Structure formats: structure tokens, C-alpha cells
């Protein structure tokens, strides 16, 4: 019964359009970002790292703020065709919405915007072996989002000097389901 109700909801939510009026870009209510998120779009200035077999190509599952201010990410990534589950805890910094974590190098992770209900975006700066890489990600509450979210993501990427050709679409690419 519950399953039927959820399936009934999905098409109407997936059709939901990006809505300017309800986005937060600061003073986040971290409790409200808690829960299920799926990888929808990623972008990077080094495509090798987010394309197939890339070390930063991750399939998100859950994001949970912890009591001590850290932010926990649960995701999968592929190693030699196998799905590997990873839990990554990012430590808070003095800047609200900004975190640091050692994962495939040193990372600064910044929550850039969310509407809590449909999508959330993060910016990550990775330094691995002395090389700096910029990564942006958009996660959705549902595994599929309408194209209005891609337009939004293209705009966010521009702010970080990444072009549309630096974007990959992970919709339906998640074999770890
Ligand atoms: C891109 O990432 C790959 C894999 O980590 C690395 O070998 C390569 O040097 C990187 N390229 C640049 C321009 O940083
Ligand atoms: C916060 O709690 C998590 C989970 O218990 C732990 O892994 C992390 O190290 C803690 N961070 C700090 C700064 O205490
Ligand atoms: C790290 O960088 C050094 C110097 O650029 C290079 O010789 C070495 O192979 C790199 N190591 C890895 C694991 O990429």
C-alpha cells in the first residue's frame, strides 16, 4: 500500500519545476537537508575524475548532519565494476555550511544552495598529490529531476568557471541501486 502511494507521487514530483522563491543560499537549516539524496549532475575541471571509473564519481544515498556539526555522506562508487559503499564524515569549519574531509586527497566541501525539498548542490575543492580539482554536484530527493534543474546547475557551474561541457548527467547511471 505504501509502495503504491509512493509510486503514485513520483511522476508529479519529478515534473516539479525549479522554483526561485524557495531556495536557500545561506543560513541553512541543516536538519532539513537530512535524508535521501541521489546523484543527478556532476561537473569538474578534470573530467577523468567524474567519468566512468573516476575516483570522484559517486552515487549519493544519504546526507545526515550530526550532533557535533559534522556532515555525514553515504554513497557508492564503482571499483572494477563493483559497487563499494562509503561513509564519509566531513568536519565543520568556522564557516557555516563549509566542511573539510580527507577523501581521495584533501577536500573543502561547501553547501552552495538547496530548496530542501527537491535538490541540493555542493561545491568541492579537492587537492590530491598537489593538484587542485574543482567539483560541483547536484543531488535530488528523487532519482530523476526535470530539465529546469539542469538549467539551474549550468548557472551554478558558470559561477565556478565550469562550462556546460564539464557537466555529466548521472540520471539512470546508478547500477548500485
Ligand atoms: C586529471 O585526473 C587524472 C586522474 O586522477 C590525473 O591523472 C590527471 O593528471 C588529472 N589532470 C589534470 C589536468 O589535473
Ligand atoms: C563528530 O561525530 C562523528 C560521528 O560520531 C565523528 O566521526 C567525528 O569525528 C566527530 N567530529 C568531531 C569534530 O568531533
Ligand atoms: C604525484 O606527483 C608526483 C610529481 O608530480 C608524481 O611523480 C607522482 O607519480 C604522483 N603520484 C600519484 C599517485 O599520482
Automatic annotation (TrEMBL):
Q: List residues of the Lipocalin/cytosolic fatty-acid binding domain.
A: 34-174
PROSITE patterns associated with the record: LIPOCALIN
Which keywords accompany this UniProt record? Disulfide bond, Secreted, Signal
Q: Localized where?
A: Secreted
Entry-linked InterPro entries: Calycin, Lipocalin, Lipocalin_CS, Lipocln_cytosolic_FA-bd_dom, Maj_urinary
User: What is a single Pfam family found in this protein's UniProt entry?
Assistant: Lipocalin
Similarity comment text for this entry: Belongs to the calycin superfamily. Lipocalin family.
PANTHER family, A to Z: EPIDIDYMAL-SPECIFIC LIPOCALIN-9 (PTHR11430:SF28), LIPOCALIN (PTHR11430)
> What protein am I looking at?
Lipocalin 9
Recall the taxonomic lineage recorded for the source organism. Answer: Eukaryota, Metazoa, Chordata, Craniata, Vertebrata
